[in-house]
Q: What sequence folds into this?
C-alpha cells in the first residue's frame, strides 16, 4: 500500500514543522499562532515511539541530509502532547526531524530556515515570500503524493498521485527557474520535475536515486 504523504508529509509533517519554525525563525513570529490555531485534524496524529532513544531519534533525523549538513543541524521531535522537544542544538540553519511513525515508510526531513517559512505559508494558505529560496532534504526516502494538489490527502481519479523516492526539494524559486523542468501532472519521477505546478507552492523535486 502506498504511503499518503499529503495526509502525512505535507499536512501532518508540515504541521509539525511549524513548531520548530516558531522557535528557530525569529523573523516569523506568526508561526506559533498558526500552529496553535490549526485544526486538530491537521496536526500530527502520533509522536515518536517512546521506545526510541534520543540517540535513535537523532540518527533517524540526520539520515535525511548529507553528512556535512547533518553534522551541524538542529534536531527536534514531537512529544506525546504534540509539543516540540529539541534533541540537539545546531548551528547551520537546518532543522531535521525523524521519521514520522504515523506513516508506513521512512520520511525524515531536513529543511533550512527559508524552507520552513515556505511551509508556514503553505499551511496557512498564504503566498510564500518572494526571493526566499529554500532547500529541503529527504535522502532517507520519500513517499507518495498528489502532484497537482498541495492539500490532497488521498489519491483520486483526477489528482495525479505519484510515487517518489529519496529526493531534494528546492522551494521558493522564481517561475523562470522552474520553466526549464517538466510540469507534467504525471511526470517521470526519475528526473527533476516540478510538483504543484501553477500553484503558489510549486517547487522542484530532484530525485537522488
A:
Amino acid at each position: 500500500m502506498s504511503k499518503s504523504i499529503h495526509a502525512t508529509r505535507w499536512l501532518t509533517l508540515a504541521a509539525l514543522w511549524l513548531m520548530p519554525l516558531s522557535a528557530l525563525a525569529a523573523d516569523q513570529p506568526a508561526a506559533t499562532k498558526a500552529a496553535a490555531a490549526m485544526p486538530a485534524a491537521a496536526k500530527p496524529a502520533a509522536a515518536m515511539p517512546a521506545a526510541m532513544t534520543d540517540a535513535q531519534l537523532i540518527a533517524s533525523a540526520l539520515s535525511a541530509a548529507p553528512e556535512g549538513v547533518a553534522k551541524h543541524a538542529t534536531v527536534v521531535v514531537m512529544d506525546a502532547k504534540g509539543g516540540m522537544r529539541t534533541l540537539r542544538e545546531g548551528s547551520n540553519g537546518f532543522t531535521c526531524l525523524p521519521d514520522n511513525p504515523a506513516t508506513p515508510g521512512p520520511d525524515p526531513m531536513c529543511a533550512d530556515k527559508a524552507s520552513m517559512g515556505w511551509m508556514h505559508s503553505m499551511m496557512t494558505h498564504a503566498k510564500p515570500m518572494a526571493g526566499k529560496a529554500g532547500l529541503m532534504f529527504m535522502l532517507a526516502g520519500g513517499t507518495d503524493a498528489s502532484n497537482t494538489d498541495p492539500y490532497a490527502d488521498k489519491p483520486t481519479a483526477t489528482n495525479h498521485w505519484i510515487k517518489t523516492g529519496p529526493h531534494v526539494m528546492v522551494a521558493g524559486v522564481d517561475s523562470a527557474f522552474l520553466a526549464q523542468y517538466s510540469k507534467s501532472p504525471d511526470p517521470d519521477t526519475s528526473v527533476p520535475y516540478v510538483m504543484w505546478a501553477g500553484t503558489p507552492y510549486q517547487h522542484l523535486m530532484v530525485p537522488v536515486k
About this structure: The first strand starts at residue 74 and ends at 78. The chain has one domain: 6-207. The beta strands are 74-78, 84-88, 94-97, 109-112, 134-138, 145-146, 161-162, 167-171, 193-195, 203-207.
